[in-house]
């Protein structure tokens, strides 16, 4: 099983980034895909989730700014992040959850700085 995140980087406040997570080694369509983040000295928190049927859930702090989507044909989940704020700075992790399993990616750093 592999989850490989990409798309992180340095962006100014108000800017945008799109994270991608390419999955392999399991039946992607059957799993809920989630993005978590962890800032320094803080606990890991759920950012957004998309079920196998496409239902989405967002943390209040990112509603109306972030959009999660999935492409089952490409076994990939995305997180479009707009209007980024200083508080969005964190390592972002992809997670696959389902069938009593949970898989994690290695994380990608997002830095918001002027």
Give a short synopsis of this structure:
The protein has strands at residues 2-6, 9-11, 17-24, 32-38, 45-50, 56-58, 66-71, 76-81, 90-98, 101-104, 108-112.
Describe what this molecule looks like in 3D.
This protein has 114 residues and is mainly β. It is 0% helix and 54% strand. It contains no helices and 11 strands. Strands 2, 4, 5, 6, 9, 10 and 11 form a 7-stranded mixed sheet that branches. A 4-stranded antiparallel sheet has the order 1-3-8-7, with no helix packed on it. The protein is globular and about 40 Å long. The termini are far apart.
- By DSSP, the count of extended strands is 11
How large a portion of the residues is in β-strands, by DSSP E?
Answer: over 45%
Roughly how many Å apart are the termini? 37 Å
Which structural category do the helix and sheet elements fall into?
A: mainly beta
Q: Segments where pLDDT lies below 50 for 5+ residues?
A: none
Query: Could you state the oligomeric state of the chains shown?
Result: single chain
Q: Please tell me what the overall shape is.
A: globular
Which percent range fits the helix content?
A: under 10%
Q: What structural keywords apply?
A:
114 residues, mainly beta, 7-stranded mixed beta sheet, 4-stranded antiparallel beta sheet, 0% helix, globular
């Amino acid at each position: 099983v592999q989850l490989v995140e990409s798309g992180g980087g340095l962006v100014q406040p108000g800017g945008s980034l799109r994270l991608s997570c390419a999955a392999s080694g399991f039946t992607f369509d059957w799993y809920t895909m989630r993005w978590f983040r962890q800032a320094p000295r803080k606990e890991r928190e759920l950012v957004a989730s998309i079920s196998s049927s496409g239902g989405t859930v967002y943390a209040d702090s990112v509603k109306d700014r972030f959009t999660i989507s999935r492409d089952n044909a490409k076994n990939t989940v995305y997180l479009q992040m707009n209007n980024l704020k200083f508080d969005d700075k964190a390592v972002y992790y992809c997670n696959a959850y389902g069938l009593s399993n949970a898989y994690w990616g290695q994380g990608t750093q997002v830095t918001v700085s002027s």
